[in-house]
Structures are given as structure tokens and as C-alpha cells.
Amino acid sequence: MTISRRTLLGSGAALGLLTACGSNSGRGGGGSADGKVTLDHWYHQYGEAGTEAAVRRYAAGYDRAKVSVQWRPGAYDQQTAAALLTSSGPDVFEVNGPTLDQIQGGQVADLTALFDGVKDDFNPAVLAPKTYDGKIWGVPQVIDTQFLFYRKSLLAQANVQPPATLDQLVDAAKALTRDKVKGLFLGNDGGAGVLGGTPLYAAGLSLVGADGRAGFDDPAAARTLGKLHQLYADKSLLLGAPSDWSDPSAFVQGLTAMQWSGLWALPAVRKALGDDFGVLPFPKDGPNGKPSVPVGAYAAAVSTRSKHQAEAKAYVKWLWVEHTDFQEDFALSYGFHIPARLSLAKKAAKLREGAAADVVTYATDHGYAQPLLWTPTLQTAYQDALNRIIKDGASPDNELRAVVRKANDELQRVKKR
Amino acid sequence: MRRRISDNTLWFWVFVGPFAVGLALFTYVPLLWSVYLSFFDAHNTVSPTDFVGFDNYTAMLRDGAFTSSLGTFAVFSLFIVPATYALALALALMVNRTRRFQAFFRSVFFLPAACSYVVAALIWKLSIFNGVRFGLANTVLGWFGADQTAWLSTTHPPWYWLVIVTVRLWLQAGFYMILFLAGLQRISPRLYEAAAVDGARPGWQVFRHITFPQLRTTSVAVVLLLVINAFQAFDEFYNLLSDARGYPPYARPPLVYLYYTALGQGQNLGMGSAGAVILALIVAVVTVFQARWFGLGRKEAD
């Protein structure tokens, strides 16, 4: 069979047309037949069954615009960061931030006006990292918090009390370590990733001080981080578990007597262990120490590249500010989170008893959020140092001195921008 | 005749044009754009305005994490290049000598090359080398009374290298075996016959004096490809060692570090681009020196 030039070109044109019809740029094109604008709303993939259907249901109920929900698995932070550089990104997106660079780079819209009259009802601990220059850049959806799970029966067998100080945690982890059970699981990297600034706050310090400089330029920081190496050196830490700290599998399968994890894991732990578990904040260390509980919140942000910023802001206000019923449903009907609105967190029945109530108390009394000024560059430098301290037994003094230097330079840089 | 040339030109562009456009659009434009970005303060933007000259380059070269990532590459290539070379050559010699089921063994050894690095890395991490008692490696060692080992989390001794090197070895040895097989089949049987007549003993003596020297050009190509591939290591490192909170500072090769610098939340595209240019230059220089050292392209008679 011979193909003439005309046939070939004709087929090419037809193929091109078909391709164009079938293309999905990820953006609705901005308008629809009924005159409503189309807004693209991106979410990262939640592991909790029913969450995706819920956000699609909320979006379908919005009648002032057509909302196209995209549920995006994989490296979500990287996907959004790249998409925000182009005009084919989302109008509204869920973000574990926004980061300072995103705010200073003009990538996210100012959402301060959305909080008129309700600002005080949002948990201040999680609203603070969304605030920069007196403006609010994201609407917190729900609060996630991390804490220590412990198995009551295993502690009783070893005659160990729930640890109230870091020294007691080190001793308890050692005492609980048996042939087939480790004392403590802080993640497969020994805690460098997930703990972050938590031990510093437990020592009464902070990542960024009130003066805008590194908040851990203090001998207490080195002393506290050195104790994390002790856990590693004692072989009290579970390492190399098939699933990492965010999943309670290691704890419920009996691979470890204590595990650092999150509120989202609580229903699975309760289902597996009944009442045979308790929860604790990260224990205090030193004379100025206090228990420490990290809190964070995914937020809804609006891209400044959106052609429909006003419509996008109105939609975010409708979804996460006006519809408190959506927020409560999203927080507690599928997974397990604390609503970002204080009034909702107080009245939620599921959060008023047992371990869940303890967690809400810890988060309220001892919660700290990672400061907005703590940039990814600093996060990497600090986490590298923590890794070397924990696993290599590197000198905490030397490692922290280098991080303090880098932190002060970086904080200076971001303040200048 | 004129009509024929015109037709040929048209067909040339019909077939080559789309690929040429694709190559320009997705390779050369980003490459040049990256060089452009490397001279700007490009936080969260690909169209920066703040020209900083060579600041990104000096910052990158002074960055301990970047220089240590180059050290990681050096260690990795010291392990993986000789190990793959030796294994691929051994497999090729073995398969070449096999009289029965030759096609079967070739396929078996080549099959891992078709497996995704991501999938293989996850199998190594979750099934074979996980750190608990039911991981395959720990189960086997447990039969001999050994303690369970956290393969990817132990830095003293650095067991993570065993995991990283074995997964790549498994994945790529088959591919290089095929290259060696092609090289072996190009060796004239008359050389072996002449060697036999001269009294060379089959086995090591023939291999040393006939087979190995005859594989010189294949060996040079294999070593070059292995070194370049080692420079480009990303998938298995990333999938074996990263978690949602980041990546440990040990065993962090250059591409993983640049990924976190430019595409992580940091979005420092200027620094990332400067690092990419530095890395490209290093790869180019190493390759040229290596090629000259091995005499790549030199005629056999030289």
C-alpha cells in the first residue's frame, strides 16, 4: 500500500485535531457553557478512605463557579512548586505552607480579607506560620499533630513509668528493648527527619528566636540533641521498619513499645490495641524545658497566576471559612485531625474523650508550629546535622555551631528580600 | 531527478522534523535556559531579573553538601564500575561458552535490565533489606544466629552501600553482558586456533592473551558508559533513602542534592542550575580524559 503525500498530511491534521480534543492541560480553560468560570483545585493524596469523595462533594455544591478537583498522588509539594511557575497550574491549591519563598516570590494571593470577623476563631498556633508582613496567605483546613504512643502492657511488664523527661525516655527505651521488640521508633532515620525542632522546643528553645536569629544558639541545644544519639547508641531505636513513622504498623505489630506518630494514626491504633495504649508529648529536657508537641496545618491558597483570583478567593472563603460543617466533616469523618477552628475543635464529640482528648490538650498547651522563617535550606542544614549527631555520634556542639552560622545568614537573606 | 530530491527532502523532514523539534524544545532550550538561570537569583521563578554573575557558582562550590555529594559519587563509582564490569564480563564469558540453553540464560541475565529502578529499589528496601526480623537478608542471617541489621540506617559500618550497589548491579549487569557478548562474538576463531597451535592452555591463559585484549574497545565503551551512568544515579538512591521529611546527608549523590535544591520546596533554580552546569562540565571533562586515556577511537593498529 502506498501512502500519498495528501493522505499523510490529511491524517496528520486529523490526528492533531483528535489530540487537541483529547488534551487535558489540567486547567478547565477558564469558562464553561453556562457562563461560570472553571476553577482548578488541587489536593495532595490523603491515605484516608472517603476523603477524595468528600472534597469532590463539597466542590460540586458550589454554585458560583464550576470547580474541578484534582487529586494528585506523588511528590505533591514538588508538583505544585513547579506548576506555580507556569500559567497551567491550579487556581486554588492545598499547601503545606505556603513557604516564605512562595509568599515573597508573589506566587500566592493575600487572603487576609477572608478572615474578617472570624480570625480569632482560628487556632493561633497554626495561623502564625500562614501570616507574613501582617497578611494571611493561606486558610488552615485542619490541624495535624504528632506525639508519642506507648503500649501500656509492655511498660507495665518492664516496670517502666510513662516518661516525663527526655532522660526518662532514654532509660525507658533501653529498658523496653528486648530480643524481638525495640523500645522506641522515631522513624527509620532515627528521628532526624520527623523530630526536627521538637527536641529544641522541649529544651525551652526555638528554631527562630524573637530577635529573628537562630533560637538554639545555647549549650542546652547540644545537650538535648546529644541524648538522641544515646538512644541510637543504646540500640533502643527501631530502624529499617517496612513502613515509616507516619504509619502505626510497627507499633501495632509489636515491633516497638513506643512510637512517634500522628493523630491520624489514632483510630488504627485504637482498633488494633483497644485501650492498651497511651499518648504523651515529647518529654521536656533540662531546667527550662517543657513538653513539646509539633502542630501543622495544610492550608488552601490561591495562585496569583490564576486568571480568576477573585472567584478563587470567594470559593475558598465559602469552602473553608463559611462552611464550618465541611471543615468538621473533613477533619473527623474520614481520618482523624483537629479542626482549625477553635469553636469546632471544642465541640467535636470525637475529640472529647480518651487519648484523643489528651492529644487535643497537649496540642493546645504545648503545641508549636515550625516558623515561617525556617526555610527549606535551613531545614536541610539542620536535618543533616541532626542525622550526623544521631547516627555518626558527631559532636552536637560543632554541628550546631555550623547550623547557627548558616541559619543567621539565611535569616538575614530572607529578611532583606 | 529534481522531483526525487524534493520528495526526499520532504520525507526527511516529515520523519526527522518532529524529533528535531522535540529535541530542541525539550533538551536544548531547557539546557540553555538552565545556563541562563545559573547567572541569576532565581528563587521560585524561571524568568528572573536579578543578575548575580558567578555568585551561584561560587556558593555551590563552597557548599559542603554539594562537594560531599561529589564525594558520594566517587565512592559509588569506585564500587559500581569495577563490580559491574567484572560481573558483566563473567556472565558474558559463561553464557558464551554454554552450549545448551544459551538463549534462555541470555534472557534470564538480561531480564533485570527491563525492570524499573524504582520498583527494584522498593523491593530491595521493603522485602530484602528491611531492618526487621522478617526481612529476607535478616531472616537468612538469623539462621546463623546473627543480630538483625538496619541495612539502610546503619552508618557504621555503612551497610547502605551494600543495598545501593547490589540493586544497581542486579539491574545493569545484564545490559553490559550483552555488550560483552557482542564483543566476544567479533573475535575471530582463528586467533583461538592459532593460540592452540602455539600451545596456549585453554582457560586463563587464552583469556589473558587473546580474549581480554580483543575486548579492549568494548571494555573502553563499557567503562565510559558505567562512569557516566554512575554520575547520573538518582532513582535507586532516592527511593531507597528518602522519606517524606527529606534525605540523609550520607549517600546523597549530586543529582539528588540538585533535585532538592532546585525542585524541592526550596525552588532555588539559580543555584540548582549552577550545580547542574558544574556537574555537566565535570562529566564532560572526566569523559574526555577517560576517552583519551583509553585511546577511544584510536585505530587498532596504532
TrEMBL record, chain A:
Gene3D superfamilies: Periplasmic binding protein-like II. Pfam families: SBP_bac_1 (PF01547). It comes from the Bacteria. PANTHER family: ARABINOSE-BINDING PROTEIN-RELATED, DIACETYLCHITOBIOSE BINDING PROTEIN DASA. This is Cyclodextrin-binding protein. It comes from Streptomyces hundungensis. The gene is cycB_3.
UniProtKB/TrEMBL annotation, chain B:
It comes from the Bacteria. Belongs to the binding-protein-dependent transport system permease family. It comes from Streptomyces hundungensis. Keywords: Cell membrane, Membrane, Transmembrane, Transmembrane helix, Transport. It is a multi-pass membrane protein. One of its GO terms (biological process) is transmembrane transport. Residues 70-290 form the ABC transmembrane type-1 domain. InterPro entries: ABC_transporter_permease, MetI-like, MetI-like_sf. This is Lactose transport system permease protein LacF. Pfam families: BPD_transp_1 (PF00528). The keyword Lipid metabolism does not apply. SUPFAM superfamilies: MetI-like (SSF161098). It is found in: Cell membrane. The chain crosses the membrane at residues 12-33, 70-91, 103-124, 159-182, 215-234, 269-289. GO terms for cellular component: plasma membrane. The keyword Protein biosynthesis does not apply.
